[in-house]
Design brief:
heterodimer, A: four-stranded antiparallel beta sheet, 5 helices, B: about 180 residues, Arc Repressor Mutant, subunit A, about 70% helix
Chain lengths: ~260, ~180
Amino acid sequence: MSGHEQFGEDLTLYALNVLDGEDRAKLEQHLASCADCRLELEQLRGDGALLALSTSGPKPPARARARLLDAIAKESAAQKTSMSLASPTKTARSWGGLLGWVAAAAMVVLAVLLWNENAALKQSLAAMSDETAQATRELEDLRKIAAPILSPQAQRITVVSLKTPAQPQGKAFYLRNRSSLVFVASNMPQLPPHKAYELWLVPPQGAPIAAGVFKPDARGSGTIVNPPLPSGVEAKAFAITVEDEAGVPHATTPIIMMGAGE
Amino acid sequence: MSRPERQTISPDLAAVTAVKSGDQRAMAELYDRYSSVVYAVALRVLGDTMAAEDVLQEVFLQLWRNPGAFDAARGSLGAWLAVISRNRAIDALRKRKPETDIEDVIVSVEPDLASEADRSRAAEKVRGALGAMPPAQRSALEMAYFQGLSHSEIASKTGEPLGTIKTRIRAGLMTLRKAFQT
């Protein structure tokens, strides 16, 4: 029964839950690594228990028993997912009657809880419907804006100076914080079969990043809409090369068109 | 003192095992066996029947919800319940949140005192030892145990040095241990 003598007195106090402050912290630290002291602690708690067991007094009131068993039965009934009110058997004695009442009471409690939950859910649903209607309206607005740019039926006219022949050109609209990119090209020369123009996002440092491919239509127009891009990349410039029509991760031909921000 | 051989499962262990599977009758059995002890301790600490009844309720509800917290290998459900009751009562007395989870409380008492007779005999021995103790020692022990006063609080109450109080409390508890073991 050896503990460490220097902790002996503190252990006793700790066992009785009356050690506090720095002494307590020190002891707890010691206990974490000392099995002997932990064992002694259990023994000391046992000794303290003797004190508790030596108390005598009046018996608790009868209602306390009923109160406890009631509470237990309620908790037990609430935990069961399905409740069947079985008819009392001989061995169940007075339990069947008590359980019947308690189960009924528990059902009422459950019903009220479910009613409240239902009301709360209906409220949430109404709020969500409002949000959805709002989102739908915004989407409509955006579609109206995007349609002339993106729709194949839209007319595309590039206005250029009369003095010079029509040049191939492209305009990139890039929203960095959403990694959102729309690119519109016009007057692009036709390409051999199996080839396409590839767009590149040129960051301030590092290699250009592939940003989609397009093949010009008969009039030389093409678009790229929201190609997959790494998030939040700064675009110093955009550039175009000619590549295989499926696109490549790194440019294989020299840049033929390039532009920096306006 | 070596642990007596047990041929059969102790009635306490059987009941706690049944409680683990939600047996409410086993719970009632444990209540009938130990409610007096739990109530008496709580009442001794709190001096108020309503408050003691609340502690009684709380202790047995905790046992119902978490029967696994009692480690049967270490014996004496009665001692364990008595300690929990005392701790909860002290917490209520000093109006603080429970300092320990019941799972953290491991109490070693042999033999397991499951019978009323065993417990009466034990209580007699302990009361005898308390009576024979030097008054200052007994009062320090009781102040710590039933009032939950810290050693520094007892020291300032009695005007005695801290070291003396610590020594008295330890000596008092050792006396009880010896008395119980003989």
